[in-house]
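2024-03-11 09:14:02 DEBUG pipeline.ingest accepted 1 chain
2024-03-11 09:14:02 DEBUG pipeline.ingest length=420
2024-03-11 09:14:03 DEBUG pipeline.predict start
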Amino acid sequence: MSRSVLSFALLLSACQSPQDAPYAREVAAAVPAIEKAVGLKFKSPPKVQTRTKDEVRAFLERKFDEDQPALELAGAEKAYKLFGLLPDTLDLRRFMLTLLAEQVIGYYDPSTKVLYVVSGGGASKGAPSPEMLNITITHELVHALQDQYLNLDSIAKQRGDNDRQTAAQAVMEGQATFEQLSVMLGGGNFAMNLPGGWDRVRQTIRESSTSMPVFANAPMLVQETLLFPYLSGAEFVKTFKEKRPGQVPYQSMPVSTSQVMHPERLLDSVVTPWRVELPKPDGATLTYANDLGEFETRLFLYQYLGDVGSAARGAAGWAGDRFEVVGTSKGAGLAWVTVWDTPVDAAEFLDLAGQAVEKRFELAHGAGGQGTVRRFAAKGRQLELTAATIEGRPAVLYVDVPAGASTRLVDPARVRLRRP
């Protein structure tokens, strides 16, 4: 899911704050530890201020609309509903603002270069513990330090490349999470000193997020996209520090979630995905275009297969994708082109995507056929999965349109591939 939709939620969910400001003592104690852990110096002293809950709510609504313009959000919402990843009845903007209101306690704002703390603290009425104060200061000061070496605002406002934006956000949030833990737990390979190691870190992050009622009832796509920067991002940073000690990841930023989930594809062999360029749809009007990346392709499979192993296996050979939301004479449709590392990867995705369609529309196994073209009809929709070759690369075309509309939206011969 577009990180510009969701980038604030986990950043804010990690923050718990006391009532006093400006926390000069806590900042002074945290800064040298953060500089040592990250390996960079603050160019200017970080600033901390307080805001009321109403002021924070107003800020979030304004910032949300800036980072996710109405047309962009409407396009993304429609796309995920067509993929079956969001309920048709969900109002995404309203839901996300409710989720943010549940989570927001404090935040770092790149536009003002200030770390804001919500006056009155978090959900607890009592004074926060020193440990919780350290979490707040440390996590948000890592973001402040990042912002002095690269433009966080520009990352949040990228358009049209959801996968690359998600990867960049994962590095930012992952580094803040990893270094926060490193500072709190003594630095070095701290995970080795924890009972349960890194698996315990993952479990703790999940448990702390799912304890919030709105988040706990969010669609799987929302939950997993919010957790991705913390979990996979922190693991990427962990691996980066092991393989490139003394360096920071800003000079080798991943360009896809595939490189975040499989750091060796960036750090060892530099496996770069293809950027898929689609022609204008035939016989339909283009309303929105973007990509999913390996991570959201995995979520697409998991949504209906319900098996982590199958979803991971089906998405593992991902090498690039692009989708278009289109308007047909019968209503909204979707055309999605995925490119794969090998013909075996493409065939496995074709099979698993077909199974996902069958489960989603409650069709019998094999209802679409077993060949290179698989056609499904159910609940007023026509879906078609087609094995193809695009510029010598194995590919799969996925088309979902209203009944009676043409499925010939994309000509594989006109699709182009290039490196980012």
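2024-03-11 09:14:41 DEBUG pipeline.report The first helix runs from residue 3 to 13.
2024-03-11 09:14:41 DEBUG pipeline.predict end
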